[in-house]
Design brief:
By secondary structure, this protein is mostly beta strands. Helix content is 4%, strand content 36%. The chain is built from two helices and 15 strands. The protein has helices at residues 27-30, 39-42; strands at 4-11, 34-36, 51-59, 68-69, 75-76, 79-81, 84-88, 90-92, 108-110, 117-124, 126-128, 143-149, 160-164, 168-170, 184-188. The strands form six sheets. Strands 1, 3, 4 and 5 form a four-stranded antiparallel beta sheet that branches. The chain has a three-stranded antiparallel beta sheet with strand order 12-10-15. A two-stranded antiparallel ribbon has the order 2-11. The longest helix is centred in the first third of the chain and has 4 residues, at 27-30. 11% of the residues are buried.
């Protein structure tokens, strides 16, 4: 008799996905279940994430309901991206000694963090359960951009403005360097 078995766990699979409708329950088939999440683009905090994991468990007793025992670590399929920014309240420009540029000497720039915006460009809201970007064909409808603006700035930072934006979410993706599909963050901070 075997003492170990492989266990594959899927956590928080959306209720609209019916495993009984799959052609079979092979691991390769399960890992190809397509996940789509319109909430990523809507800029909402996610209440739960689809996770999956595979590990070996020890067979306890084949005659009982609990046939195997073990720990199965799971990984979230989606990425959660949080950005924390610290910005100086002001910058005093001083012309270094022995330089001819006096145009900027004595200028003071003040940051406007309440007007700051951060944009996540080319997020992906479609993947397969394995998270392998090679196993899903994306269209332009599967990519999205979302902007966070007017951050909440803590009062306890009198000289150094800092904030953390709402998280961004995306499924795994792949791209060629310089491609129009490359994901990135674009931060805008006005100064006066």
């Amino acid at each position: 008799p075997y003492n170990d078995c492989d266990v594959y766990v899927i956590v928080n699979l959306p209720s609209d996905i019916n495993i009984d409708e799959l052609p079979d329950r092979k691991l390769s088939t399960l890992k190809q279940i397509v996940l789509e999440d319109a909430n990523f683009e809507a800029n909402l905090i996610q209440p739960s994430f689809v996770m999956e994991g595979l590990n070996v468990a020890t067979v306890v007793d084949r005659n009982k309901v609990l046939a195997a025992k073990g720990t199965i670590p799971v990984d979230r399929v989606a990425a959660k991206i949080t950005v924390s920014i610290e910005v100086e309240d002001r910058i005093d420009l001083q012309t270094p000694p022995n330089t001819p540029d006096t145009l900027t000497s004595g200028m003071i720039w003040t940051s406007q963090p309440k007007q700051m915006k951060i944009e996540f460009v080319n997020g992906v809201n479609r993947t397969v359960l394995s998270g392998n970007p090679d196993n899903v064909t994306l269209t332009s409808d599967d990519r999205y951009n979302v902007i966070h603006s007017v951050p909440t700035i803590p009062e306890e930072a009198p000289n150094l403005e800092s904030w953390t934006c709402e998280p961004f979410y995306t499924y795994p993706t792949k791209w060629e360097i310089g491609s129009d599909e490359e994901p990135y963050l674009f931060i805008t901070l006005p100064w006066t």
